[in-house]
Amino acid sequence: MTESLFNRLGGVDGITRIANDVVDNHAVNKVVGVRFADIDLPKLKHAAATFFVSATGGPSDAYQGKDMLAAHRGMNISPSEFMAVLDDALLALEKNGIGQREREEVLYALYGLRSQVVAV
């Protein structure tokens, strides 16, 4: 049996580090950074980490936030902004030494959320 993506990403601690780096990347990204200027970054980091924990096979009750559609409704996120966010995620995965297979799985899963994030 294959180990869960949750475990392969380092469990809660590994995923928390990755999520923190993703949010930090967003905050300085020239394409999307302005969207994060007035956001409570520690709160967003916690939400991102718990979302990743639940979505990758960790405890299903870890994430208590809104679903992706509700969280992004009315933001009018463009396709280029969405791709910039995926780039930020890839950089965070690479920074944390995550293997190629796991990077592909995470990016595939994130890209699968596109219809719930872009232009909603």
UniProtKB/TrEMBL annotation:
Residues that bind heme: H72
CDD domains per record: TrHb1_N
Pfam families: Bac_globin
MF GO annotations: heme binding; metal ion binding; oxygen binding
Key words of the record: Heme, Iron, Metal-binding, Transport
Record field: transmembrane: none
SUPFAM superfamilies: Globin-like
Protein name: Hemoglobin
